[in-house]
Design goal:
2 copies of one chain form a homodimer.
Chain A: H1 11-19, E1 24-25, H2 26-36, H3 45-57, E2 61-67, E3 73-79, H4 81-105
Antiparallel strand pairs in A: 1-3, 2-3
Helix pairs in contact in A: 1-2, 1-4
Chain A binds a DNA duplex through residues 5-6, 8-9, 11-12, 25-28, 44-47, 49-51, 54, 68, 70-75.
Chain lengths: 108, 108
DNA sequence: GACCGGTACCTTGACGCTCTAGGTACGGCA
DNA sequence: TGCCGTACCTAGAGCGTCAAGGTACCGGTC
């Protein structure tokens, strides 16, 4: 829908959170996020796949090849312990940041 | 303090909101934001001044040279009508976005 | 009289993330 | 045959923020 560009640095948090419910492949991550937010967020594949690589390189997630119910080759990502720690850190950071912005916006 | 890097695209909103309370010069904008957020946000001058230029170029704010109480040359920025409209738009966008992220983070 | 910290402005270059816009491959359906 | 949906990937550009510098002036301190 609105297809608002993501605020930079948010995608990692969203993906980590998605994977905290269990392993998923890239395409499914995007669909789940869009469904969950009622299409308020649109996950561009050109953002998502590089993000997945980044996070894998950093040890936050691990990939494994598999097959979907539709018979497609899929790459399934799962959270690592570091990924869980990162999720906690980024969730805290997000809360901290939005609280600060709320203080600015608040006394409207 | 925490000096968390800003999420990209947020600085404009913060500055516009600051100026909605009345004209201020750059340095004062940074101080006000840091004070208001209890130093949760740190406004880097290397981010702020380019942002002010950007916003002036876009017609959201207007600058005028003046003198501070301390006798320093200061550049005072004021919101234009377009700036006010932009502030409304960005505030709505922020609310929309944080709501979406909350939906993802929410069922924690 | 030299030095330092605070006010106040500015610039350059690198960095990092997201987006646009492409591409491949395969299956099902009309 | 052609199209749509699934599913992955990449190159390049765009843009905002940051790090790290710089200038200038003032007041206070040693």
């Amino acid at each position: 829908m609105a297809t608002a560009p993501l605020l930079q640095g948010t995608l990692d948090l969203l993906v980590l959170k998605t994977l905290s419910w269990g392993p998923r492949h890239g395409y499914a991550i995007a669909r789940w996020l869009e469904d969950t937010t009622d299409d308020a967020l649109q996950i561009e594949e050109g953002s998502l796949y590089p993000a997945l690589y980044r996070m894998e390189r950093r040890g936050w997630i691990e990939a494994e090849w598999g097959t979907s119910e539709l018979g497609k080759r899929i790459k399934i990502y799962a959270l690592t312990p570091q990924g869980r720690a990162q999720l906690r850190a980024e969730t805290a950071r997000w809360a901290h940041f939005t609280t600060a912005v709320a203080k600015v916006l608040g006394p409207a």
